[in-house]
Amino acid sequence: MSDIAVRVMGLSKQYRIGARQKDHGTLRDHLMSNLKSLWRRNGHSTSSISGDSGKSSERVVASGAFSALQDVSFDVKRGETVGIIGRNGAGKSTLLKLLSRITEPTRGRIELDGRVSALLEVGTGFHSELTGRENIYLNGTILGMKRAEITSKFDEIVAFAEVEQFIDTPVKRFSSGMAMRLGFAVAAHLESEILIVDEVLAVGDAAFQKKCLGKMEGVAREGRTIFFVSHNMSAVTRLCERAILLDEGKLCLDGTSHEVVNAYLHSELGTMSAREWSDPLKAPGSEVARLRAVRVRTMDGQSTEKFDIRKPVGLEMEYDVLKSGYKLMPGIMLWNDQGVCLIDSNEHDPAWRGRVRPPGRYRSTAWIPGNYLAEGTMFVSVSLDTLDPLVGQFYERQVVAFSVVDSCEGDSARGDYAGKLRGVVRPLLNWNTVLNSENIQAEPVVTEPQRRC
Amino acid sequence: MGHVMEANAQVNAVVNRPRRKLIIEKQDRLFDVDWSALWEYRELGYILVWRDITVRYKQTAIGVAWVILQPLITMMIFTAIFGIMAKMPSDGIWYPVFSLTALLPWTYFSQAVTRAGESVVVNAKIVSKIYFPRLWLPLAMVVSPLVDFALSMVLLFGLLFYAGIPLTWKILTLPVFVLLAMLTALGLSLFTSAMNAKYRDVGHAIPFVIQIWMYLSPIVYPVSLVPERWRWLYGLNPMAGVIEGFRWALLGRTAPDPIVMAESLVVLVLVIIAGLVYFRQMERQFADII
Asked: How far apart are CA A109 and CA A112, in angstroms?
């Protein structure tokens, strides 16, 4: 028996662009997507307009296909734990789907020595009408377990999920946390030699996340091979001895997880809040205009990586206009760390609107008001188009980043709550509470005192 | 969190299952049904059938009674409209019996075609997240309505008893006709379920096609009503053979032509082979297009 559990050779996967956008291919859609790809090929538009983080021009090949993964090769030894990292659209999910046989490669091959299970989502196939017990069997079987195997592990699964009292209750009465715990518990008891895990730890409360990590560490100690895809860098370094960094569908770094995570964080966040192109020949752009710098800065002009949630954030781009006679439209996009595009905004400064800009260096700044963004890491993309006709001059994806922090002083939207808040934005809403009457017959309400910051 | 440690400590020995090396690459063989994988996942087929049956009558007040009620009411309507009002000939058989013997295999067939046709799309979430032989989806949905069918046979036997129609040895041939209906449903569904993943139009067309098909099958009228010179064409409809077979086995009417039966069996086998090829071709893209 060889020592290699997984061998990936020259693996490539292309999607038809229409297919990737999940159109359900009614005949009408089919015609439309053909028209669109024709339009795209004629170069009337750059892919920047659609703002999809994955579509750099290089990956969209002429036939209207999108190359999600390009010529990726690596070997994984038995018992190795490999983290797969990269930003959104780098090809991580595609690699997982290929490894788990959900989709077929366009080129190249994978050799898997041993039984494979993929856990791409917790509780896939759960049926809300069925009880917890029934769903354990259903989910387990879908994941490839045998009935006898499930029966022998049943108690263990139930105990791990902590749902003993509800095991004969339909899952639709479960809280989302319970359903998720049950889903993870089933998957965690799969006895496969190769386990593929995607981001399951991104959900659930802190205690359960810890428990899942603990379980996975246990699995790793048993000598099974694990692929672990996550945006959680601390989890990757903790769980994996080795990591693979994907970028634009290519394998760009393969080494110890500390090495690779450091390199990734540096390339992503090391430069963090400012990037400059000192050599105009290497700067992104065209003969019409070139990008020279992108910065994130405060009101008093400082470039910083950390922003108080209450303070405005200035997104600044500096560019040279090299040819006269063009009307310009700079644009800025903001992405959160979940890959959601929060803001897509084009410059509309009345001073320049509809006017041709003479050659020279320009600086355009967009101000995001304070008390608007939620906490977390934000990535900034910048673009520049010339108008009439609309032609893209450059589009730089996620060039700088910054993080928004809430110092918990009670005057932000979180009020006096210290826990995790949801929402992709967090504006300070105008709350208004009045005491209408003091004379009511109220039931005595026991309130739990909230933790103060 | 005491039992967490326990769960971790209980080290699961890596299974001693015979290991087989798996190669994943682009397949371009035309016919490559992986029978061993299909067999390995047989419990999935079983559980899909079980899920379908269990879920179907959850949160219903009268539950499985629907299985009896639906054909019973349809039979009553047919009897009223076609038997009494339109005075449709029924080869001298009491009309309720005449129509119910046809309705039951037909109900099975239409259920199987409907459920199997949407089986891939309905399970889109699983299909796009987990590998398993996708063929089990239409296969399971062709099997699961058999349970409803078997239950509704009770109604038919009750009616036969009431009408004083004796059962003969011929009833033993019923499974053959049921199998024929299953193969017809499967052959069709291999195409529709796979096509539905790409073109949702199929989902809209299926109920419509089934309705037309019903009137092209001898359910409310006898075959004898079909002009002689069109019979050969009529015989191409395998469901006509199935229904004729049911009437022969239960009511002792003229036997279906064995040559026509053999013909439609051959056609069905070809359709199923073509369906398997088509399904396998489409299956590769399921996760990408669904």
From this structure: 10
Q: Does residue B144 sit within a domain?
A: yes
**pLDDT, position B96:** 93
Higher pLDDT, B10 or A135: A135
Strand bridging mode A328-336 / A376-386:
antiparallel
Question: How close B4 comes to chain A (CA, Å)?
Answer: 7
Which position has the higher pLDDT, A397 or A153? A153
Q: Is residue B40 pLDDT above 90, yes or no?
A: no
φ, ψ dihedrals at A86, nearest 5°: 150, 160
Q: What is the pLDDT of residues A247-282, one digit of tens each?
A: 888 998 999 887 787 677 656 444 567 878 888 887
Structure confidence at residue B10 (pLDDT):
33
Quote the domain boundaries for residue B222: 35-289
So what's the pLDDT on residue A27? 56
The answer to whether residue A120 neighbours chain B at the CB level (below 8 Å) is yes
pLDDT computed for residue A266 by the predictor: 59
Contact between residue B193 and residue B113 where contact means Cβ atoms under 8 Å apart: no
* Binary contact (B284, A104; C-beta < 8 A): yes
The token pair at A159 is 């105990």
For A179-190, the DSSP string reads HHHHHHHHHHT-
Is the predicted pLDDT of residue A51 greater than 50, yes or no?
A: no
Which amino acid does the sequence have at B2? G
- Residue B23: is it exposed, middle or buried by C-beta count within 10 angstroms (0-12/13-18/19+)? exposed
Cβ separation of A215 and B285 shorter than 8 Å? no
Q: Is A111 within 8 Å of B200 when comparing Cβ atoms?
A: no
Query: Is the residue at B122 inside a domain?
Result: yes
CB-CB contact of A297 with A275 (8 Å): no
- C-beta of residue A71 within 8 angstroms of C-beta of residue A10: yes
What radius of gyration do chain A's Cα atoms show? 26
Q: How far apart are CA A155 and CA B115, in angstroms?
A: 34
Q: Residue B243 contacts by C-beta under 8 Å, 6 or more apart in sequence?
A: B101, B102, B105, B106, B217, B218, B219
Q: What is the pTM of this model?
A: 0.69
As to burial, measured by CB atoms within 10 angstroms (0-12 exposed, 13-18 middle, 19+ buried), residue B100 is: buried
CA atoms lying within 13 Å on the CB side of residue B44: 24
Residue A58 confidence (pLDDT): 54
A171 interfaces chain B, CB cutoff of 8 Å: no
The confidence band for A321, taking pLDDT boundaries of 50, 70 and 90, is very high
Domains of chain A plus CATH, in order, are 4-115+192-269 (3.40.50.300), 274-405 (2.70.50.60)
CB A77 within 8 A of CB A5: yes
Evaluate whether residue B45 is within a structural domain: yes
A158-170 pLDDT tens trace: 998 888 899 999 9
Q: Which of A26, A146, A207 sits opposite B43 (nearest CB)?
A: A146
Buried residues in A276-298 as b, exposed as e (16+ CB within 10 A):
ebeeeeebbbeebbbbbbbbbbe
CB nearest to B130's CB, from A25, A142, A156: A142
pLDDT at A83: 92
**A424 touches A335 (CB < 8 A):** no
* Alpha-carbon span A33 to A22, nearest angstrom: 11
Average pLDDT over chain A reads: 80
The minimal CB distance from B8 to the residues A97, A124, A215 is found for: A215
